[in-house]
Design goal:
The protein is an alpha+beta fold. It contains eight helices and five strands, in the order αααααββββααβα. It has one domain (4-149): Nonspecific Lipid-transfer Protein, Chain A. The protein has a five-stranded mixed sheet. A hairpin with a 2-residue loop joins strand 2 (81-89) and strand 3 (92-97). Residues 62-150 form the SCP2 domain.
Length: 155
């Protein structure tokens, strides 16, 4: 069972007021089991995913992406499946919730704990892929280099 103090602290957190570095430290302090138990609370899970994906646009590094054109679909499996898409083109990054009719260049599939560890800089995407914690459909080379297009904190 997750430490109820961790759940309470996360539930009371004002995500908008937490820096990416602080968020990375919070995630680093949680076990996969605790993250997965926290994700059982659908309201809290939605708040966390909304904030993480909302920050992607702000943490995008257009100078690194250059002329890259790619639609990345994220499928996060937990109690329910959450789907988001990151559309990179013309030096911009746009994020939307849900699945569009467009064909993604790559689809990344993982659980809640793996997703939070990945986006907070607490896990290597290559290691996750090799350990089958991250499944990739489509352009594996793009997937392996995605982290360079975003300013990801180090916890």
């Amino acid at each position: 069972m997750a430490d109820s103090e961790n759940l309470d602290n996360l539930a009371d957190l004002d995500f908008a007021g937490v820096s990416p570095e602080e968020f990375a430290k919070i995630v680093k302090g949680l076990s996969n089991k605790e993250i997965n138990e926290i994700a059982q609370d659908q309201t809290l899970r939605t708040r966390v995913l909304t904030e993480v994906f909302g920050r992607m646009e702000r943490q995008f590094k257009p100078e690194t992406a250059g002329t890259l054109k790619a639609l990345i679909r994220w499928k996060i499996d937990g109690v329910s499946e959450a789907v988001y898409e990151t559309d990179i083109q013309d030096g911009t990054c746009t994020v939307r919730e849900g699945r569009s009719n467009a064909e993604p260049r790559v689809t990344l599939m993982m659980g809640d704990a793996e997703f939070l560890k990945l986006v907070s800089g607490n896990a290597s995407p290559v290691t996750m892929f090799m350990m089958r914690k991250l499944k990739v459909a489509g352009d594996v080379a793009l997937a392996s280099g995605l982290t360079r297009y975003f300013d990801i904190p180090k916890a």
